[in-house]
Amino acid sequence: MAWSPRRSAGRRLQLPLLCLLLQGATAILFAVFVRYNRETDAALWHWGNHSDADNEFYFRYPSECGRSGQGQRVVWPLPFDLGDEREFCRCRMINADFCAGAVLISFGAILGKTGPVQLLLMALLEVVLFGLNEFVLLSLLEVKDAGGSMTIHTFGAYFGLILSRVLYRPQLEKSKHRQGSVYHSDLFAMIGTIFLWLFWPSFNSAPSALGDGQHRTTLNTYYSLTASTLSTFALSALVGGDGRLDMVHVQNAALAGGVVVGTSAEMMLTPFGALAAGFLAGAISTLGYKFLTPILESKLKVQDTCGVHNLHGMPGVLGALLGVLVAGLATHEAYGDGLKSVFPLIAEGQRSATSQAMHQLFGLFVTLTFASVGGGLGGLLLRVPILDSPPDAQCYEDQIYWEVPGEHEHLAQVSEETETQA
Amino acid sequence: MAWSPRRSAGRRLQLPLLCLLLQGATAILFAVFVRYNRETDAALWHWGNHSDADNEFYFRYPSECGRSGQGQRVVWPLPFDLGDEREFCRCRMINADFCAGAVLISFGAILGKTGPVQLLLMALLEVVLFGLNEFVLLSLLEVKDAGGSMTIHTFGAYFGLILSRVLYRPQLEKSKHRQGSVYHSDLFAMIGTIFLWLFWPSFNSAPSALGDGQHRTTLNTYYSLTASTLSTFALSALVGGDGRLDMVHVQNAALAGGVVVGTSAEMMLTPFGALAAGFLAGAISTLGYKFLTPILESKLKVQDTCGVHNLHGMPGVLGALLGVLVAGLATHEAYGDGLKSVFPLIAEGQRSATSQAMHQLFGLFVTLTFASVGGGLGGLLLRVPILDSPPDAQCYEDQIYWEVPGEHEHLAQVSEETETQA
Amino acid sequence: MAWSPRRSAGRRLQLPLLCLLLQGATAILFAVFVRYNRETDAALWHWGNHSDADNEFYFRYPSECGRSGQGQRVVWPLPFDLGDEREFCRCRMINADFCAGAVLISFGAILGKTGPVQLLLMALLEVVLFGLNEFVLLSLLEVKDAGGSMTIHTFGAYFGLILSRVLYRPQLEKSKHRQGSVYHSDLFAMIGTIFLWLFWPSFNSAPSALGDGQHRTTLNTYYSLTASTLSTFALSALVGGDGRLDMVHVQNAALAGGVVVGTSAEMMLTPFGALAAGFLAGAISTLGYKFLTPILESKLKVQDTCGVHNLHGMPGVLGALLGVLVAGLATHEAYGDGLKSVFPLIAEGQRSATSQAMHQLFGLFVTLTFASVGGGLGGLLLRVPILDSPPDAQCYEDQIYWEVPGEHEHLAQVSEETETQA
């Protein structure tokens, strides 16, 4: 257990002090700015009592606060709002959730090579940039991105990848043997994959319009997920040694179908379109794990711990482009009166379908720019030498930051016991 | 890692090519036949705008598309429909889910002794037969089977078991040592049991009628599950060596209560009836694992990898018979106006309760026939020699079809590291 | 596998016979007393058909049967009711669920040192006392406790701790080496933590009033959980050896925020209040694991297997006191017309806010009394010598009560196979 040299008091205190600082700052912001909104406050909710209150409560809120609605205000990903309406509702929680998703994706690129303090600082920076990027896309450009192919996946992935590039460690092969997957952990990780698979349709459809919008988003996401699962198995066996499947591909690429329809699932993508998109995403993602990740590391010096480029980066960009295509094909015939909820600006005649498509494309570039510049800045921030980052030889090692009981001990006990019995 | 001899190119390509073929066929069928239905299509949904649309949307759909409704069309388990109404809705997804359940049950009988290509081919055949059997039962015989004691559990189990009989391997004991449960895997499998337990009430009640029907189905399923859990613990300790409990029993038989009320949970089974049924199912299932499985293998040459005969076969048949009994006892007094939604033909006077019971019983025989003939055909199909099935000595072994990192490596590293430190 | 000496037939039969006895008793009670209620019975539900039945069904039930409603009858935690209304509804299931939660908490204090028969007997006693305590609190004192800081957490924890005190084993260090956490099990246990974290907001809000009440409870619980998570990480690193985090703290103390707002989450706690409460609970809980648990064991002779005192005991009491405070601060201004659903007696003028606070405080004392006396009685009951409790040297050992396949075997096989290949 004597792996790591003793850390200095300064380094040991970084994590607790940063946690306490963030907690304190949040508490102050909450005390000053956050109030219950009408749906949550006992007095406001019961004021001017509505005849059919219960129903309205449940049925009105999603359309009111959906990311798909028109005329949104700046919605801060952290659950407070500096505007003059100091209120807070569940839709903000969903938004905060989405922002947390982007941060988790970025974590995937740098996990194991960074300490907890670095991860927290990165999260702090990313949350702010996520909010800005989302504001530009959804409120200024009025781009559609319900499931976040751009705002969550593309942004999170490239933010993390650029950051990982800045933190490049040429000596990382010293820790390489610890990065490989382990039989038990692989089974364990499949639980995560299964739950992500199951809940991805809800995830994509949560902020889309109630009714046909949510229904359509859910179904398109399911179609796409099934297609990406099948193409992952096909491609994994095709490129695997001796035709064998790779657990890492299945754990990840099977989910690419959810990422790729993030923008277009609420549009009239058609069931066939969803299938085709998912198939393509699964294939690209699997091939990425096999062929691109090693090149990224050796040529571009991007060390992508969990392969977020394959699951979130490429499928996210593909999803954004798919959104451009499907938005450009939008017609009054295909959407009928539903055009108002999916593309309000086209319905009102303020934009043509082609113009909406161009805005979508521009939104992708904005996202990539925010992600790259932000990731670069983040990398520089995380290279500040006083931060407690692990040495090259101890990356991917729990024991630096965690008290690990170790199965060695356990196995030792077992054999001890066996001897005692004998 | 040199377990398996190198596979020929032909065998290595079977899985990817079959996946791609199925994906392509599905895509073509989707392109030609599948369209969004009224609840999913932007134009259709908004057409002829309804005053109270949101509510109606949520409240009407289950009764419209429930398996419990009258006058159903053929509902294909694969999510497309060759009829003239080319539409698709969530109820089809539930149906597809149920079909997938039957296939997973059949997998349980042959897992470890078959390759992925064989499993895919089996699934293809079973999906077609599942659809035919369900059509005969629900639409021709107008049998009630909301939770699928017959259509899912009995069909899936006996299809798999007959198939396993045809694939009988006399030399399987060469791989026997790999089939036993392992401490860590047993804990892991309990996660699956817990989630199945929790969601079984939703599973059984999903296709039953909204309102009292779903409520009753949920409660009956809970009662039955608790009773089967208790009887599993009782019986497992009673028949276990030295009064000890067996994890395999708990993982499986505790769920038998959900299977046994699959047909009758939506009927007026009464809380006591649900308890009694669950108790019986848990007991039969536990005893089956202890006494029947070895006999099935040695005498009837049915090698049942996961014991699906105990969890799905016997409790499924028992559930079908329970449905016969409860249907036969249906009276206008007990159901009141609710008779219309549970037994529409009795309510309309087209059938007596006894006649409905006879139809239910006949439904069981139809299911067993479909399962047996189908399983036999499936077995013959899977014995085609070019299929990539594992040799007798390598059954229950991941490494033939999967790239396995192996804990050996990991343990080796650990000891290596320890030495390095020392 | 020859760890344990052979058990006598009498001891071996205790568990199955007790299970069968309980099952039989429940069945008789169900047969005599339990009937479907209006929402579940086919005839009752359809009788006097209501125009807008579906909606009413869904929207009325929670307010009718919520623990927050006034004028509740005695609600038995076991799903039957001896009153003259022999009916049963979902709210009873939620109640039974909550009662099961209290029993599981008590299990946490004595796990590993007791046999299954002892656990069952304890559960039987605790269920009765839980029902009595809840009746006194909710119906006689008309105390508010939606999420059960008092009725579930405080009661369950101190019942188990006092019981563990009575069962004190001075020689337990013989089994101490088996109690430590293991790397794989720690990862595995995190699944449980994650699901508890995710569903805690639903848990706390399930019995609170529909509308603003449930919404507020959900949000307060989320805020509190996030704060306790952050404070757990801060404190764990602060008190950990060399600034390292402890998995046991994270698994448990991160949930303390859910416990601490159990009473007050449905009140106007304010977002800041929820943050502060969660922060405090996470800190106390983490410090408890580090410093208090060893003292409890060495000085007070309370052997608390899972540390329920830290996760449920102290945060539960803190939550009850927080409820006293927030109830005492209730004003007509803050709650408006919502006061009727949160504090009906204050709204009707029967109690002042201060009086309600005093009742809340008295409720805590009642709970502690019930828990202490009940735990003491339970301990005496469980010390009856004929019960099959594990000897001191075999505590925390699965193999006494379970057939354990053992990873030894598996590892043996692996090495055997490797040799065979070599």
Explain this structure.
- The structure is a homotrimer.
- Chain A is an all-alpha fold and about 425 residues long.
- The first copy, chain A, has two domains: about 35-90, no CATH class; about 90-400, Ammonium transporter fold (Orthogonal Bundle).
- Chain A has 18 helices and two strands.
- The first copy, chain A, is globular.
- Chains in contact: A-B, A-C, B-C.
- Chains A and C meet through helix 1, helix 2, helix 3, helix 8 and strand 2 of A and helix 7, helix 8, strand 1, helix 11 and helix 13 of C.
- Strand 1 of chain B pairs parallel with strand 2 (about 400-405) of chain C, so a sheet runs across the interface.
Reported by name, the CATH topology of the largest domain in chain A is Ammonium transporter fold
Question: Given the C-alpha coordinates, what overall shape of chain A results?
Answer: globular
* Unreliable sequence segments of chain A: 49-90, 407-422
Straight-line distance between termini of chain A? 29 Å
- Structural class category of chain A: mainly alpha
The ordered string of helix (H) and strand (E) elements of chain A is HHHHHHHHHEHHHHHHHHEH
Output the CATH class name of the largest domain in chain A. Answer: Mainly Alpha
